[in-house]
Design goal:
By secondary structure, this protein is an all-alpha fold. The chain has helices at residues 2-8, 21-32, 40-50, 57-67, 72-77, 83-97, 102-111.
Length: 117
């Protein structure tokens, strides 16, 4: 999600193309005065992801290898871990991201900005 990435990078406000001119001006003034401004529809979306568990660096590494189309056996070779360990990491990743399968997990990770392809 772009808004989540923006706030993690230090943004204090977020604008939508559909915002009215008055809301746009109010947002600029609020942020300029040191405040924060987030449209309600973005805030709702952000709250759904704030409580999500974050992936460990190893889990991100494993998921990045999976995103490259690699099977568990191949994923295990690169960091030098057992295939069973990769399976355990994938189980944890699926649970943390609430993903249905490997492809869904990769899609979620990209949308949330965990990594880029």
């Amino acid at each position: 999600m772009q808004a989540l990435r923006a706030f993690r990078a230090g943004a204090h406000g977020y604008l939508l193309k559909s915002m009215l001119r008055r809301e746009l001006v109010d947002t600029i003034r609020t942020v300029h005065a040191g405040g924060r401004r987030v449209p309600a529809e973005i805030a709702d979306s952000l709250t759904a992801h704030v409580a999500d568990e974050s992936l460990s660096s190893r889990e991100v590494e494993v998921l990045r290898e999976v995103a490259g189309g690699n099977a568990n056996k191949r994923v295990a070779r690169n960091p030098g871990i057992a295939e069973e360990t990769v399976k355990a990491h994938m189980k944890s990743i699926l649970a943390k991201l609430r993903a249905n399968d490997r492809t869904h997990a990769v899609t979620i990770a990209i949308k949330r900005g965990i990594f880029d392809l």
